[in-house]
Amino acid sequence: MTAVISNNSNISCSCSIEWLSAGGTINKSVKVKTCSLQIVRNEFRDLFMYVQSKEVNQKLLLKDVVIHKKFANEGKATIMFPLSKINLLINNAPPALLISFLKILFIKLCSAKSSPKASVREKLLSTKDRCVQEISPVNAKDVNRIKAVDSNSNLKRPNQSVDVDLEAKRHCSEANAPSITDEQKRVLHEVQKGCNVFFTGSAGTGKSYLLQSIINVLPPEMTVATASTGSAACLIGGVTLHSFAGIGDGEGSLAKCLQLAKRPNVQQNWRNCKHLIIDEISMIDSELFEKIEWVARQIRGNDKPFGGIQVIVCGDFLQLPPVKNSKKRFCFMSESWDKCNFTTFVLKQVHRQNDSQFISILNKMRLGEVNPELTKILQDTATQNIEGGGILATRLCCYTKEAKEINDSKLKSLPGNVKVFEATDSPEGVTKLLDDCMAVEKQIFLKEGAQVMLLKNINVSNGLVNGARGVVQKFVNGTPVVKFLSGISYNVKEEKWVTKTPQGMLLTRKQLPLKLAWAFSIHKSQGLTLDCVEICLNNTFEAGQAYVALSRAKNLKRLRVIGFHPKQVWANPDVLKFYKRISLYQNEFIPLGKKKLSLPVQSKLNPSKGSIIQRNILLKSRK
Ligand SMILES: Nc1ncnc2c1ncn2[C@@H]1O[C@H](COP(=O)(O)OP(=O)(O)OP(=O)(O)O)[C@@H](O)[C@H]1O
Ligand SMILES: [Mg+2]
């Protein structure tokens, strides 16, 4: 087993420091907006924590401390120093860094228990030079000492605090958490430098997955995670860009948008925000991007792009475009985009699919390229039996209305009574807000035999993951038992979703993590990974729509494409040009800025099949 090696012996955060009386009441309290916490040791190997800021400078002995870490993944924790009679309330710490900082603290505290100690006499007589050093990274000695510690010795703990020894043992024995790849790490590092970053890549290259890691290293109270659509926002636990920007539907004049954004709550959100994240950027049009960027500058009284906010955007412009079709359709065509001077990355490694033939087909389709071999492979899937155990394929439709009609009529045609499951939303009156940013609906209608999709990771090793497909077998104690494709039957229980408004208010919805899954619209499926899909592309009306639909599937064996024809696939020529510019610098730090790059005639994107791409672009322009 690998020990977790954590080097995070310091962290930057906000905090409150409380000085306590002998009776435990608070004598004095100071709030610090930015401070640094550092774990150090002296020449006798005693551990201390330095708390340093403009307002305070404290060196606290790390002995018999009590740690509360329940809210560490929200960037909060409390450390009580009984010997110094001080409580340190940490907040606004980047969650991943705080968790790592606490890990090293647990390990070092536990390891210190069994390391040799100098007596008071030895300390007084010591001729050692006085020193304070940064602690060393966790090493094999620490791990061995921790294994030797008897963790039953420390049973009396205040409510909700954690047992230092048990925590240290757990961190030493657990395998390293699943991490991000090297190409994903490069993006993360660039974000940590404070640059504006745009990262792209084909479907399933882990853009949204990486966003989660990015969110975890940024201070929560200054970071806003958004996406262009509610369902995409839901996947990263964020809100829609519209709802954060507070400019209504964004269709009004600049003056109107500014007036709306000047409402007190909205204005405060813009002022608090230091890092703005936008997923599925391809669906934000140029005009909206310009408006939001301008509003940010006005509200923040700062003429830098987005009023000085760090902007991190990701998405794939070869997937679905903005709904509004104007001359400057895509946001990369806007002046604001150029002003942001994004460092651009193209992620290459596909994670959603692992079948190289399917990945290669998808990569060609993404560029609007279709050849006879690809056509035959997709047409051959039309007769494929992909169903099993009563679970039917989910049909991806070009229009939302079509998908709704299929779900309604299929449910109606099943025998038996409909059972209605009503979500509990809190606080009251937030249903509309929750509907905008949650995939799980306020009301779910089910019957025995209903085709459903799971909307939450329940047990990853059992295949009970977000997107898993199943069928309702029966109802036990009022809740459905669903049989999933993995063969597992699970009595689905109510789950809780929590989202934070840009004002910091927590909104919760309790509901069954299920959704009817006979059919979805392709637009609603953007961003998802699906188990078993049937696709009919006869009514395709957008560039990238066929590619989005097909790239939801994990492999060719669980995919059925009905009536495939090459004319259903095309790429937008403006986007291809943009990607040609980017591809010249793949995975390089490229501040594209205002400089328009001249291109060689033959793009690196597709040197050999340029003519075929061209054909499908022309098809689109004839439409
Ligand atoms: N580094 C990684 N390690 C393990 N799994 C990963 C990694 N990156 C992504 N994945 C998995 O790959 C799948 C696709 O990832 P994700 O949805 O983030 O891709 P995406 O680029 O956002 O796709 P889309 O363009 O369709 O939105 C998910 O199941 C995700 O959990
Ligand atoms: Mg995504």
Automatic annotation (TrEMBL):
Main location: nucleus
Enzyme Commission designation: 5.6.2.3
Subcellular location: Nucleus; Mitochondrion
Catalysis: reaction(s): ATP + H2O = ADP + phosphate + H(+)
UniProt domain DNA helicase Pif1-like DEAD-box helicase: residue ranges: 180-372
Alphabetized Pfam families for the sequence: PH_LRR1, PIF1, Pif1_2B_dom
Subunit and partners: Monomer. Interacts with telomerase.
Family of the protein in this entry: Belongs to the helicase family. PIF1 subfamily.
Xref: HAMAP family: PIF1
Function as written in the Swiss-Prot or TrEMBL entry: DNA-dependent ATPase and 5'-3' DNA helicase required for the maintenance of both mitochondrial and nuclear genome stability.
Listed name of the protein: ATP-dependent DNA helicase PIF1
Organism name: Nezara viridula (Southern green stink bug)
Taxonomic placement: Eukaryota, Metazoa, Ecdysozoa, Arthropoda, Hexapoda
